[in-house]
Amino acid sequence: MSNVGLLYVGAVLFINGLMLIGKVPGKSAAIMNLFVGAMQTVFPTIIISQANGDPAIIFGAAGLYLFGFTYLYVGLNQLCSLPGEGLGWFSLFVAVCAIVIGSVLLVHFDDPVSAVMWYTWAVLWFMFFLLLGLNMESLAITTGWFTLIVAHITATIPALLLISGAFKSTTANALWMAAASLLALIFAFVMGRRAALNAPAPAAMTQAG
């Protein structure tokens, strides 16, 4: 993924995380999703058309469509008030692809940082699958907080460092990113649990007699 594209992945994930925890209305978040989704479909198409059949370039560009289609799907769902099951099952497809892409980057291209990014995104998209595809609404806050935090761990901060030339794909940096992502997941589950405990009780349970 290009460094500039990665920066805007961070931006849209941040907005979507805020949407899931109830801080940004869905239709407001839809605009950013459509902007970034369009960018992440047009750019890889241009890259592939100019790749001259180079497998490495095509492989790198192909993963961008997974992001692009996800964001376009989210944007259209929010604007048109569509059910989320289709997006949820597509998220499962993305999660599986992300594992494969991360493994190829690690083994074939010796790029541990990018591999950890894709593995983390696999976890994130699997959570989208649980939330939307299987209607596990209790995970909404947890997924929102995880999305919000890993937006910066796996996208915004690495993108800015890569653009400046100050970030290298080393095993040490990959381990730091993996540890930060794991802590983000733990924190997200804590926040989700806290939200569940603070949720109003059902009316049948609060009415005595």
From TrEMBL:
The keyword Coiled coil does not apply. GO terms for cellular component: plasma membrane. Its main location: membrane. It is a multi-pass membrane protein. The chain crosses the membrane at residues 6-24, 31-50, 56-74, 86-109, 115-134, 146-167, 173-192. Pfam families: AmiS_UreI. The keyword Transport applies. It is found in: Cell membrane. Keywords: Cell membrane, Membrane, Transmembrane, Transmembrane helix, Transport. Belongs to the AmiS/UreI family. This is Transporter. The lineage of its organism: Bacteria, Bacillati, Actinomycetota, Actinomycetes, Micrococcales.
